[in-house]
Amino acid sequence: MKLYRKALLLCAAVLAVSPHCVQAELKMSSVFGDHMVLQRDMDLKVWGWADAGQDVSVEIDGQKVSGKAGDDGRWEVKLTPLATNAEGLEMKISAGEETKTFSDILVGEVWVCSGQSNMQWAVGQSYDADLEALTAKFPKMRLITVPQVGTQEIQNDFDGKWEACTPETVPGFSAVGYYFGKQLLLTLDIPIGLIDNAWGGSAAEAWVRRDILEADPKYAAYIEQWKNTEATYDYEAEVAKWKEKAAAAKAEGKPFNVRAPRNHLAGQHRPGNLYAGVLHPVIGYGIRGAVWYQGESNAGRAWNYRDLFPLMISHWREEWGQGDFPFYWVQLADFRAEVAAPEPSEWAVLREAQSYSLKLPNTGQAVIYDIGEGRDIHPRNKEDVGKRLARIALNRDYGMTNIPYKNPSFSSMEIKGKEAILTFENVGSGLYTFDVKEATGFIIAGEDQVWHNAKATVLGKDKVKVWSDAVPNPVAVRYAWATNPIANLRSRENLPADPFRTDSWKVATQPE
């Protein structure tokens, strides 16, 4: 006992110069835990923190791999590929005399569900939430949500845990993510893991490591705007002012319905905040791919998005170290009031930027301007959105090439007198017009660049004839070019035609 006391005193005396006198606790990101799903058929990184120089081993399904913690205490090992397993495995992590054991681990397909509020939007807020919850008994589908932490400081962990999909857990989970995962589960009959780290209202710049944006002049204006905010914004002072006003209103017996100020510096717009706060803790975890629904918050910088969005995707892939993993997104839905005459639209330009990003390998897009709600930026029909994303994955990642997923898209234009003959590709079994026989959503212009509503009709399987008596010599055509397009062209497989324009004229938010 005396020797033990002497050891404690000696340890305390040298602690300042020897921080390793006491063994560090074995820690791991919460993305590892009971009930997790591990990605099948690929090398898997497992990492955590222990005492510097500590030997660490990880055991699962007959494998045992070892590593050593570096000077910063971080360790990482790599498992060889695991086969699909729905029975429940155990993982044992050992560092010195300390051991962590995770149980009920499944091996299947893991997807990240990310973006802003339309990805965050929960099953419980969507159509038929009560009926969906009643049937959400899927023990082979596991869910985990990363809490919203906006910070410039890199986070290695988060407060979250894996849970089985049940009537109790599903109402609070991402609806688009859930319906996407549910379709995969029911089709493939293998375990599905979904990681939700979406944050409503988030700007795409917040999802990119800040130094990458600062090194590129394309984003200089946004970075400078934020540097000014960082230099001048005093959150505590704003809160103090709000409290004074609330107290004054109370003293005068007046209502005070002003919401307390939010800390912009800890929010979802500041460059790098979400990369550091909600993305970094899961980077490196084995995944099949990511599904993404965002863009509304970037509409005011829509032209810039054609560079920013591909940059973000490439940045994520580089950070993950899994090559060009699948990255599929949802194009902006229809929103705001329908308009009778053609007008400039930032949302149309943002949709074009999203389609432009298909130039990247292993990408896909779900077009949904036909299932939004003009009165609400948060359409409640999330089931069809999830299914359209699932079509892409089932075809491209799971070998179901008979599942159509491509939207009809503009291929070429031929002018014949006052008519423009448009040819489309990816038309499936043929073009079709929903609700009415006439094709709606087309506008046409001559050399004067003045747009007019056009008449249009489908010709055969893959062509559309477009014209307007107001444009005797047309040179350009646009389709679904509006914030809330009145457009009905689709394939017979019910996939709407991708919005497009044949011109290269200046559009909203495009710099001079």
Outline the structure in words.
The chain is an alpha/beta fold and 512 residues long. It contains 11 helices and 23 strands. It has helices spanning 2-14, 117-120, 129-135, 175-188, 210-214, 220-232, 235-251, 273-279, 302-320, 346-356, 383-396; strands at residues 37-39, 44-49, 55-60, 63-68, 74-79, 85-95, 98-115, 138-145, 163-165, 192-196, 289-293, 327-330, 363-366, 409-416, 419-425, 431-433, 442-445, 451-453, 455-459, 463-467, 476-479, 489-491, 500-501. The strands form 5 sheets. Strands 1, 3, 4, 6, 7, 8, 9, 10, 11, 12 and 13 form an 11-stranded mixed β-sheet that branches. Strand 11, helix 9 (302-320) and strand 12 (327-330) form a beta-alpha-beta unit. Mean pLDDT is 95; it is low at 1-22.
